[in-house]
Q: What sequence folds into this?
């Protein structure tokens, strides 16, 4: 947990310029995309002095980040309005851009209240099997999250899958009551397996192997929810074509509150050799 929260503590290197911790954990050859997205969002929040809450972000993963190399974030103050605040963030390692994001914040206003309900054909988190056994035992102590993997839904009569990945997840320890910190951590968590949700289910007998990577990512924050309470992350593949896959998803609380909508496109390149 301490290591996770350290990712969101920055060194100011100039006006609206920040440098973030980027540890080399000794496995993997690229930085986790959710880490970069969450950090970029957090730097943007440091440049906002009014009580506006996050309502959306749109981002591109430009290059794979290198583990162990510091990441510099440059924030552009696009707009400071009475109702909306807009920021652009560029993440760099050395002279190379690895990630870019636009994000928008909105003053709370009263309005209509309607939401899409969450799936009811899933077990509750306490009754769902832990997914920790999917993680090598020597790495489990490094994971600050709890995960309960539920698998895809059954296909309908036409063969379409309403959900291609469903998982309960939360951070293990209670966090401060900071809605923007929770939004940054949920952004981090939103890239955990989104690529899996973008892949249409294939028969177990299929020999097709894929090189997969996140390409772009969008989130809409409808209602404040907490990263340290159970969230049902429900994803559905929309399209697989041209070595790309698009998924869309939702994050609901255990009580059914719709907090976030997500869309991600991933590179799904067949490995031919």
A:
């Amino acid at each position: 947990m301490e290591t996770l929260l350290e990712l969101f503590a920055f060194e100011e290197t100039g006006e609206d310029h920040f440098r973030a911790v980027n540890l080399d954990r000794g496995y993997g050859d690229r930085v986790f995309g959710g880490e970069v997205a969450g950090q970029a969002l957090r730097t943007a929040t440091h440049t906002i002095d009014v009580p506006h809450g996050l309502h959306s972000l749109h981002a591109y993963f430009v290059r794979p980040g290198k583990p162990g190399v510091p990441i510099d974030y440059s924030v552009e103050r696009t707009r400071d309005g009475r109702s909306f605040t807009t920021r652009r963030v560029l993440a760099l390692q050395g002279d190379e851009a690895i990630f870019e994001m636009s994000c928008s914040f909105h003053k709370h206003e009263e309005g209509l209240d309607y939401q899409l309900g969450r799936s009811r054909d899933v077990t509750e988190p306490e009754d769902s099997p832990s997914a920790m056994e999917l993680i090598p035992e020597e790495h489990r102590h490094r994971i600050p999250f709890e995960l309960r993997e539920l698998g895809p839904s059954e296909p309908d009569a036409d063969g379409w899958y309403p959900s291609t990945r469903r998982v309960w997840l939360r951070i293990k320890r209670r966090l401060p009551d900071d809605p923007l910190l929770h939004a940054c951590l949920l952004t981090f968590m939103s890239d955990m397996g989104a690529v899996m949700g973008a892949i249409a289910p294939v028969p177990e007998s299929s020999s097709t192997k894929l090189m997969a990577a996140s390409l772009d990512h969008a989130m809409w924050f409808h209602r404040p929810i907490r990263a340290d309470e159970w969230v049902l992350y429900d994803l559905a593949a929309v399209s697989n074509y041209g070595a790309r896959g698009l998924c869309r998803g939702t994050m609901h609380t255990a009580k059914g509150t719709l907090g976030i909508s997500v869309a991600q496109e991933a590179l799904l390149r067949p490995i031919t050799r």
